[in-house]
Amino acid sequence: FQPAEMAKLVSIMIAASYIALQVKRARELDLFTVQMGIIAAIAGLTELEPDLGTATIIFGIPLAMLIVAGLRRERVLQLLLMGVVGAAVMIFREPYRLERLKITYDPWSDAQNYGYQTVQSLSAIGSGELTGMGLGVGVSKYDYLPEAHTDFAFAIFCQENGFLGAIFVFLLFAAFAVYAARIANKARDEYGQVLAMGIMLLIVGQAIANLLMVGGMTPVVGIPLPFISYGGTSLIITMAAIGILVNVGKQGEKGG
Q1: Which of 95, 144, 188, 232: CA 20 to 30 A from 73?
Q2: What is the mean predicted confidence (pLDDT) over 158-170?
Q3: What is the mean pLDDT of residues 169-188?
């Protein structure tokens, strides 16, 4: 059981309750609130594990919800400044994070150490070509690619299903984003709208972060690919989030 996975959904629900209340009262949104303080504390404890990837999701998705909901431009600029400073502190606090950042766009320069996972991931993706080696036939999962069943599951998926399989996964997440956005638009109250938006950002945001990491475009962080990466707690929480989203949609249909 991983409490940090549950914290992702809890942080969204906390942020949604604050945003919905402010919107209902026609008040401005703010960064410095009790609710955001609680979310920041949860993210901080997660980062101390250390798990920067999950901490970023826990704190980043509620911030994205605030921005989408209409956070003032001045606050957004403050947020960007704090984000740059915070990222610098987090990176330099752990030496390995700086090393991972350095080799992000040239993993072959340290292919046997910090760049190993990225190199093996790209090799697995490339070897899949157009149609893949065949389901279950991929070889990189056998002691070549670390975390092949969790954070880098998509690389093995590409090796076995090829470019066409990868496009299919992209389309599935895009379809989910459209579905969630429609539910948010038809929700019967402010809380339902914001919560549906938050769940969409959580699942699609994690998918984008994981796909960028597997593709070697961002440093390696511990963010799973929803529905595909192995992980009991992650799957349960993701399915719970989908259940909440569907319920919001049903309530919207009744209200309409």
Answers
A1: 188
A2: 94
A3: 94
